[in-house]
Structure formats: C-alpha cells, structure tokens
TrEMBL record:
InterPro entries: FA58C, FN3_dom, FN3_sf, Galactose-bd-like_sf, Ig-like_dom, Ig-like_dom_sf, Ig-like_fold. Residues 244-321 form the Ig-like domain. Residues 1-90, 94-238 form the F5/8 type C domain. It comes from Actinia tenebrosa. This is Lactadherin-like. It holds the Pfam family F5_F8_type_C. Residues 353-446 form the Fibronectin type-III domain.
Amino acid sequence: MFYVCAVATQGINWRHIIEYVTNYKVMYSKDDIQWTTYNESGVEKNFPGNVGNRKAVTNSITNPFKAKFVRILPTGYVSHKTMRVDFKGLPSACTSSLGLENSQIPDNQITSHSSSDDYHTAPRGRLYGNSSWCSSNTSNSEYIQVDLGQIKTVTGIATQGDKALDKWVTSYKVRYSFDNRYWNEYKEGQFSKVFVGNTNRKDVIVQWLSRPIAARYVRILPQAWHNGTCVRFDLYGCDIVNLPKAAVDIPQVVLSTPKSPKTIACGILGEPTPDLQWFNDGTKINGATQSTLQVQFTSTEDVASKYNCTRQDPNTRAAVCNTFYTCRATYPNYVASGGIDESSVKVTVNLNVPQAPFVTAVPFQRYIRLSWILPNPTVKEGAISGCLIELNNQSSIMTISAGHQASPFTLTNLKPYTNYDVRMSVKNMVGQGLWSKYLHIKTTIAGNT
C-alpha cells in the first residue's frame, strides 16, 4: 500500500512511430474490487498528458491517495493509446511516531512562543504526558514547536488537552520549516488549513495530512480553544523524504578586483522541476531565483562589513575574507513530502590591514609631541579610519586612540626626565595594522622646555 503523490507518463519508445496519450484520468483501489476515480473539489481530474513521444510529463497529485492498485484511463491520444507510466509516492507505513510521545526527541528540541508557568512549558506538551504545554497569552500567534533533528516526512498530527485541567485546543494551524528561519503554512489548495482539534481533555484526535510534508521544524498554532490554549501532541511520519538535487559548478571563487563580477551557476534536478533560491550566509537574496548568480565586491569597506575576515598571523598584513552563497532546490508546496537540497560556493577576497606608519617624536618636560606620515592605502586596504598609540613607561602601558588626521598629536601629563617607549599603528575596516618600531624617548628635566 502506498500514498500516490505523482504520475509520470511518456509516449511510445519507437523513433519512427508517433503514438502518445494527451489526457488521462486516474482510478485507484485498495483491493482491486472497489475503485475510485481521482477528483479535486468533487470533479474528476482530467490530467494533461504528453505532447510527443520522448519527453516525460509529471503531474503532481494535489490530494495524495492511499492505494494498492492504480489504473490510467486515456481520454485523449495521438494515433493510438500508447504510453509508458511511473508513479511516485510514499509507503503507507509512513505513520510511526516521530519521537515526542516516547521521548526520543529531547526536551531542548521542544520550544514555544511562551508558557503560562513552569508546570506547563513546551517539553511538557508530549502526547500522554502528565501535564501539557499552555501559552501565557490567548493569541493566534502563540505556538509550540518541535525540532525533529533532521528533515523527515510528516503524515499526521495527534493532539490532546491538558492532563488535569479542563483546557484544550479546538482548532489549530500548522507551519513547517527546513531551517527555522523561513516558514511555510500548511495549505490545502490555495487556502491555509485549519485542523479540527479536541472536544475534551482526554481523547486523542489524529488528523492525517492529505499532502504529507517534509520538514525539520514543525509548529502547532492554536486558533480556538476551551478555557485556555493547552495541548499535548505528537507527529507521525517516517524518515523517507522526496529530495531534489542541487549542485554548484565550482566550490570556491576568488574575487581580486572591485566591480569585476564573476558568475556562479547551480544545476538542479527533480520531478517536477524544483524551485531555486540563492542565499548569502543564510539570508535569502530577494529575486535571486535563476540558475546563475553574479558575485562581486565594490570596495574594501563593502567586503569588511559583509564578509567574515580573519588574520592567521598578527605579524603579517594579510586578511582572508569569506562569504558563502548557497543554492537551494526546493520542491513546490504541492509536492508531497518535498524536501530540499543545498550546495554552496565559498567566495573569497584577500585584503590587507595597513602598513606601519612612519612616526617621529619630540620630547618636552611633561609631554611628547608625535608626528606621523600615514601609508598610502591600496585597493586591498581601503581608507584609514583611525590610529592607536601605545605608551610604555616601564611600569604601565597606556593605549590611546587618535584620529588618523590628528598629527601632530601631544601625549600629556607625563613625568619629567622619564623614559618612555612609544609606538603606533593605524586601522582600517579590515582591522588593526602593523605596529611601527618603538621610539625610545626621555622627557626633559625640570626647567627645560
């Protein structure tokens, strides 16, 4: 027995004969005796078929059905009713507990928007548990959430009310996500599905999804309730997921010149054709849904503010800046148990922190006047944003920030006739630059100027 989620058809496999089915209906049965014609909204569905012999056409089943036997009834054809056919779906045994009731899912993977008190936190919302989860507010935005640990197929939802209190949820919505950032609302057709909940606190009500979903994160959002939003729940399904395939054409790109874009490409495979979306360091790039993406940087400041820049050796100027572009293939929402696949490109820009400045110093009785010449920034450095001065009098070290255009700069409140070591570095958006050599200076004796 299987849940049938899609039908794929082709015409005859002969080069010089043109024969294929242009339209068809689907019938299904559990026992080969009682047959049902697949329908949507009470109307028998007439599926579009092929337009030639070779290319396969896949039609998704909006409301997957459970069957052991399936018939294809051609309703239109070219030359003869000739076809090749395949079915896509899930085993009907995909109805096991996903780990809430039996505590295979740990407490830290069950969370909520809020909780009414310490006895009604999210981990207490397990089916048949000794309490329940109760929200602190009666709002349609409240939810209890479970992290399944990996992407799995969800086929059903079981709910109960509180163990002791006459509080239960009478209706709810379901949202699901692959990454806990971007969420989908479960729909039937074009409309959000409102599931029927409980009528008392004890009985378990199971709602089987007409379209199984693939998800790692699932939220239950109470929409109506009796006396309070309290619920215990479990999810049913299996580890089998209908996954597409995504693959970028190159694992790493190095950008060396500002405003010189490079193109990265992503190939996706799946039936039906998956949706494609590009992300940058986990954030969706709006409008980036094509198979190619141009990447570039406009300036050192642009890279330093958006990339992750690190220096392997503080005694060298080199800084390696990386960001990741990810191509995500996702089946459309109408595909049963449609999962995701991702492939990433590391984009690297090699930058530098500034060179050490040239520094001179003139001592006085209680102050030292510093002057400096800054290094000329290159395209890999960008503008200088400030200076750092280190003053060491053998007993303590003081660091002083100064504007990069503050030369000459006066170090005040010093002791007369005292040895000081002074050095300086400048910084840019990439980081703190190299230090200049120490200047060994002694302030003048009292009475000198």
